[in-house]
Amino acid sequence: DVQLVESGGGSVEAGGSLRLSCTASDYTLTIYDLAWFRQAAGKEREGVAALTTSGGGTTFYADSVKGRFTISEDSAKNIFYLQMNNLKPEDTAMYYCASNRWRGTPLNPNGYVQWGQGTQVTVS
Q1: Which residues in 92-122 are b (16+ Cβ under 10 Å) and which e?
Q2: What's the CA gap between 108 and 35, in Å, rounded?
Q3: For the chain, how long is the longest CA-to-CA vector?
Q4: Between the CA of residue 73 and those of 19, 49, 69, 76, 106, what are the distances in Å?
Q5: The pLDDT of residue 64 is above 90
Q6: Does 55 have pLDDT greater than 80?
Q7: Which value, to the nearest 10 degrees, does the dihedral of the CA atoms of residues 108, 115, 40, 67 take?
Q8: Residues 110, 57 contacting (CB under 8 angstroms)
Q9: What are the φ and ψ backbone dihedral angles of 39, each rounded to 5 degrees?
Q10: What is the DSSP string of the chain?
Q11: Mean pLDDT of 46-73
Q12: Residue 13 bridge partners (DSSP)
């Protein structure tokens, strides 16, 4: 089975930054649509950012993170990132990367085939 692996989570103070990474072995991530999702305690999983392969790479962001988060990829390294700046306590959640969207809109978690196991982000 394909396994995506996230890294880069941690604890930061409000206003700080983190960069999450997602990679996979034996699987070319960056030919597919890519996305980051998060799930806070007691809440449903929500889309944070997505990067589609159409149009030379189109990005989508949740309104709550626009202007603060940036999704990007490095195809040579087979890795993609979520740069998170000006973090807020409400950004606290488990963050998941996903790849290979086969249906639905880019920020809908139900459309992705491959998932990582998550990395915790805590903002105090």
Answers
A1: bbbbbbbbbbeeeebbbbebbebbbebbebe
A2: 9
A3: 38
A4: 12, 12, 14, 9, 16
A5: yes
A6: no
A7: -60
A8: no
A9: -140, 115
A10: ---EEEE--EEE-TT--EEEEEEESSS-GGGS-EEEEEE-TTS--EEEEEEESGGG-EEEE-GGGTTTEEEEEETTTTEEEEEE-S--GGG-EEEEEEEEE-SS-TT-GGGEEEEB--EEEEE-
A11: 93
A12: none
More confident site: 31 or 110: 110
The beta-carbon contacts of 45-49 under 8 Å, at least 24 apart in sequence, are 45/96, 45/109, 46/107, 46/109, 47/106, 47/107, 47/108, 47/109, 48/82, 48/95, 48/107, 49/82, 49/107
**N-to-C CA span, the chain:** 36
Q: Which two tokens stand for residue 65?
A: 């993170």
